[in-house]
Amino acid sequence: MGSFMAKLFIDVSTLPTDGYGFIQLLFLGAVYGVVLMRGSNLIKDGSELLLLIPSLAGIVGSIVLPVLGAVPDGAIVIFSGLGDDAQEQVAVGIGALAGSTVMLLTVPWVLCLVAGRVNMQSDGRLNYIKPTGASAEWRKLDPPSKFFGTACQVSPAIAYTAKIMILTLVSFFIVQIPAVVKHCAATSEKDKCESPPVAALVGAIVAILLFCFYLWDQARLAKSDETKQHKIDALRQEAIASALINLRTILLQETGETVLCGHFRYSD
Fold it and tell me: Which of 127, 147, 156, 163 is the most buried (most CB within 10 A)?
């Protein structure tokens, strides 16, 4: 670790190797987690408030939120690459980032499926709407412990997003395939093979292009996104409850009116 970084952060290798050192390491990890969580929440809350501005609502959810949401993850990789052993530290940082991303793509998805499941009828329809003449004991999921014979209905946007995710795997395969075919570097270590630098460069360029395409595509879809309006309505309710805005302001936004010297007039 460089002299400048050594003055900012504690070198964990200097911690005691006994139980006290383990406690100190847990404390440092907890502090890091709290700081990262707090920073992520501040970014999320601040960027979501931009949805209350009608002129920015279309690009906030599609561009601003994804970019700002990646800031904490990017900070992990950047700081892991500072120091004398940057190559090894970056590998650790990327591994941690990949592991957390996989967990966010799998565990919450499974929990949503389990919590949102409903009974499936004999004709394949899902039990979301109460039938006419149903008894007062009618439930979407009955019994609550039932697992087989249940399902969740997803919107077409879920399937479309899954296709986009598969498309973005191209940049991963550009780097991974040369490594799989064992393009080995000139080294004395046995079985140490890595992807050639040109593959990493091409993969990085493709990843940047795919990210730009993703932002453009999300901005295009945001113009007809019904979920965005539901989110804006929920944010408006929270903003009214916290006195950030009032109902008059929302009505003015919806009707296209402005306020001039305390009087109403239609905006151009």
Answer: 127
pLDDT tens across 17-53, in order? Answer: 888 888 888 888 888 888 878 877 887 777 777 777 7
Q: For residue 214, give the nearest of 70, 71, 98, 102 by alpha carbon.
A: 70
Domain that holds residue 59: 17-69
Do the beta carbons of residue 152 and residue 118 sit within 8 Å? yes
Taking a C-beta distance cutoff of 8 angstroms, is the pair 250, 236 a contact? Answer: yes
- Cα distance between residue 88 and residue 133, in whole Å: 66
Token pair 């408030």 is found at 49
For 141, the token pair is 């999921």
Q: Is 205 domain-assigned? A: yes
User: pLDDT per residue over 109-155, tens digit each?
Assistant: 889 888 888 888 877 788 888 777 777 778 888 887 788 888 888 88
Asked if residues 241 and 85 have their Cβ atoms less than 8 Å apart, the reply is no
Distance of CA 73 to the CA centre of its chain: 10
**Averaged pLDDT for residues 65-85:** 73
Is residue 123 a part of any domain in this protein?
no
Q: Which of 42-46, 77-81, 177-181, 253-257 has the lowest mean pLDDT?
A: 253-257
Using the Cα atoms of residue 18, residue 20, residue 22 and residue 24 in order, give the sign of their dihedral. negative
Domain boundary among 69, 102, 133: 69
